[in-house]
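Recall the central idea of this unit: under ordinary conditions, the amino acid sequence of a chain determines the structure it adopts. In this exercise we apply that idea directly, starting from the sequence alone.
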Amino acid sequence: MILTQHRTQLAKFQSLIALILLCIGISLMSDKFLTVDNAWNVMRQISVNICISVGMTLVVLTSGIDLSVGSVLAFCGAITAGLLKFGIELPANNLYIGFTLLGAILVGLVVGALLGLFNGWTVTRFKVPPFVATLAMLTIARGLTLLWTKGFPISNLGDSFAYIGTGWFLGIPLPVWISAAVIVSAVVITQKTALGRYIYAIGGNEHASKLSGININKVKLIVYSIAGILAAVGGIMVTSRLDSAQPNAGISYELDSIAAVVIGGTSLSGGRGTIMGTVLGAIIIGVLNNGLVLLNVSPFWQQVVKGGVILLAVIIDKANSKND
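Accordingly, the structure predicted from this sequence is:
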């Protein structure tokens, strides 16, 4: 009995323990790791993954998955950049519509919501497995990005837009503030609202949730829409930081996002996990990426290492599930 309690307590803090050990290990191997500049650099980099991973967490909690977040990120970033720089021309009416910074950002967010809504609609209306539905959207959104950009970057977007990804507020990078707002909002949703209770209930037992009167399809539509919006937020931050919308932006971001979710303790079978656990997982992925770069590890080996970390996290998740 005592051994089981110790095991349960260890499981709760395993991600935090892993992060501490990782930081100690990297700091012993590189004197550049424990510096203020590097710390802010890591926080700025993981802000995007935190936003995406929070949306992914909500989806995974319902026993779903969203493989399209990287492509949605790229498309929404490109839409925002294109509208901001070029506006829209309607040749038939000889009409030009310009966009303010706020207007372009809002359109980008709406596009993200619609793409996420389409994912949810495909899953709920046609009962397509989330893996397949979002894999299709991954390809669709990437193709739309290439069509919109014609395969070329959209650059030189102005200082006001660049401030979103590179600016500072009260001594802290603005992307960190944005990701913090996303975290707080998601924690409130999951812990203080009926929607949050429904998300966990559906992931725990979808059939029982349906019998208890929960509108499962509505909840899933909302969750996938939120995931799309947060991917758009990430896309806007990436585009702002680079001052350029790249057609190939966001490639493999879905893998980092899933890794953060799993490492953070969210069960891939749904119904179990926390937003703060995912945040911790995103920090671990960010620190790992940063450490591998500082140690001059080959990019090819970096992929191998990250793949191994994801596999290990899934194995631990399965072991914890058996012990519950």
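The two ends are 13 Å apart (CA to CA).
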